[in-house]
Amino acid sequence: MSAINYSVVVPAFRENGNLRPLVTRIFGALSQVNSPVNPREVEVIIVDDNSRDGSVETVEALRREGYNVRIIVRTTERGLSSAVVRGFREAQGDNMLCMDADLQHPPEYVPAMLAALSRTKQFVLGTRYAKGVQIDEGWPLYRRVISSGARMLALPLTSASDPMSGFFGIRRETFLKARQLNSEGFKIALDLLVKCNIPTEAIAEVPFSFGVRAEGESKLTGKVMLRYLEQLAELYWYRFSGLIVFVALLVFVAFVLLARALLGSYGGLNGKAQSKH
């Protein structure tokens, strides 16, 4: 049996209806003649938040059919970002990819995403904002506006074209450098880009068109968007805290000098007034 060099991590909650087409399409793409990645070197890890919807049975059936897929069922944890981190920590491959279970990240792009990772390219991002790429026509306008706005807010933190993408990969050695990861955050890719301090030249980008959800529930809620704003505040402090403190000190020193100058001027004027009397 070939060594596992690639791991595809799929966070899931009540996605049983999507698991079979997802897994079969991933390995179908990997088995194509022109695939740059050997399917025998790939594992798929489903990280399920105790859905109890038949996901475990579906994965077991797929394993019996010969697919290298396994499922981790979490009973005490919840959340997308923490599920991705759990999957990466248990992955066997040195090249790790995260994708959604809802088929909005087309499995046919998995070979190109995995192949893009290398010693010089530590992070790969599936981007929806490359030239010639269009978001699927079925994606509502409000989702496009939210996505674009969230992306603009993240621009000071990273040069990546689509840091909001949930379709991304990272090398194991780079992932292990991350400190203070926010398991409650809305976008784990953005968290990793900032906290692993990944330079622009180490980021590979693979253009892809966003698909329409097949089954399951959308993850985008008002609560999730609020958590994203909280995550942004935390990341801005993480990245720019030193600069913020420095600017605050400069303002304080300037205030003290200005106060001394004003007091000195006031004292001088007061002394002249007293001498006249």
Please, could you describe this protein's structure?
- This protein has 277 residues and is an alpha/beta fold.
- It has eight helices and seven strands, in the order βαβαβαβαβαβααβα.
- It has helices at residues 16-30, 55-64, 80-90, 110-116, 141-154, 172-175, 188-195, 222-276; strands at residues 6-12, 42-48, 69-73, 95-98, 123-127, 168-171, 203-207.
- The protein has a seven-stranded mixed sheet, sandwiched between helices.
- Helix 1 (16-30) runs parallel beside helix 2.
- The chain is elongated.
- It starts with 5 loop residues before the first strand and ends with a helix.
**Beta-strand residue fraction:** 5-15%
Mean pLDDT value: 85
Largest sheet: spatial strand order: 3-2-1-4-6-5-7
Helix tally equals 8
Give the distance, in angstroms, between the N- and C-terminal Cα atoms.
103 Å
The radius of gyration computed from the alpha-carbon positions, rounded to a whole number of angstroms, is 25 Å
Characterize the biggest β-sheet. 7 strands, mixed
Spatial shape? elongated
Share of helix, binned: 40-55%
Number of strands: 7
- Please write the string of helix (H) and strand (E) elements: EHEHEHEHEHEHHEH
Q: Would you identify the regions where 5 or more consecutive residues have pLDDT less than 50?
A: none
Secondary structural class: alpha/beta
